[in-house]
């Protein structure tokens, strides 16, 4: 990667699709177009978001309430920041909010929300852990923004392939690394793909 190049501020869908063509064999033909759309959406979120700590806080609160949902979930999402709403709508527009006294509707709404923000990653060959998508609050803001990007590309990858991901051992080739390499190169990001994946995995609870 050329370190002299400044990170890009815009990326078109056509540019993103072309960059991911080299990874196409890792994803079924039927899933590839949708995968590209989700990754492009992730890059747009990455380019627009500048408050990762706020987003991480809001996502944790939303996830906590959604586990045992009540009407307060509607208030929290209704008052969420633009960046958090953008992350929640990565899979598509949010469903209509149920009324505050519709317990069944709130439970269904909470289930939909959690499906949008929880992904699974492989910690080892025989373990899979859940991970709350979004940014880590550790490190500098630049790293936190990259963590948002990696988290959502990871969610797109898991959805498209049904596979998890992990850090590299020695010089082995891993599909998810290849995909992130292509995205980082397209955005001119001077950052380690493996370290970014490591930060994502560290966020997974035991």
Question: What's the total count of β strands?
Answer: 2
Which structural class best describes the helix and strand composition? mainly alpha
Trace the largest sheet across and list its strands: 1-2
Low-confidence stretches: 137-141
Distance between the termini: 35 Å
The Rg value, from CA coordinates, equals 17 Å
Helices and strands, in order, run as: HHHHHHEEHHH
Helical segment count? 9
**Count of the domains:** 1
Q: Would you write up a description of this structure?
A:
This protein is mainly alpha-helical and 206 residues long. The chain has one domain. Helices cover 57% and strands 6% of the residues. It contains 9 helices and 2 strands; from the N terminus they run ααααααββααα. It has a two-stranded antiparallel sheet with strand order 1-2. Strand 1 and strand 2 (127-132) form a beta hairpin. Helix 2 (29-48) packs antiparallel against helix 7, helix 3 packs across helix 6 and helix 7 (141-161) crosses helix 9. It is globular and about 50 Å long. The termini are far apart. Residues 137-141 have low confidence and may be disordered.
Brief summary:
The protein is globular. The protein has helices at 13-20, 29-48, 52-67, 72-78, 82-88, 103-117, 141-161, 175-187, 193-202; strands spanning 118-124, 127-132.
Topology of helices and strands:
Blueprint: H1 13-20, H2 29-48, H3 52-67, H4 72-78, H5 82-88, H6 103-117, E1 118-124, E2 127-132, H7 141-161, H8 175-187, H9 193-202
Antiparallel strand pairs: 1-2
Helix pairs in contact: 1-2, 1-8, 2-7, 3-4, 3-6, 7-9
């Amino acid at each position: 990667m050329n370190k002299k190049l400044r990170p890009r501020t815009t990326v078109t869908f056509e540019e993103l699709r072309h960059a991911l063509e080299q990874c196409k064999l890792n994803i079924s033909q039927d899933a590839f177009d949708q995968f590209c759309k989700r990754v492009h959406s992730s890059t747009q979120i990455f380019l627009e978001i500048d408050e990762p700590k706020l987003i991480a806080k809001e996502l944790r609160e939303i996830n906590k309430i959604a586990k045992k949902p009540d009407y307060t979930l509607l208030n929290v999402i209704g008052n969420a920041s633009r960046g958090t709403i953008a992350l929640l709508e990565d899979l598509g527009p949010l469903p209509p909010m149920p009324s505050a006294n519709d317990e069944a509707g709130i439970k269904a709404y909470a289930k939909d929300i959690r499906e949008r923000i929880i992904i699974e990653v492989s910690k080892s060959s025989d373990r899979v852990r859940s991970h709350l998508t979004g940014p880590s609050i550790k490190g500098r803001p630049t790293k936190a923004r990259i963590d948002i990007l990696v988290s959502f590309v990871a969610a797109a990858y898991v959805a498209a392939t049904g596979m998890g991901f992990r850090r590299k051992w020695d010089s082995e080739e891993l599909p998810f690394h290849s995909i992130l390499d292509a995205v980082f190169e397209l955005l001119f990001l001077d950052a380690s793909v493996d370290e970014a994946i490591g930060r994502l995995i560290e966020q997974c609870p035991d």
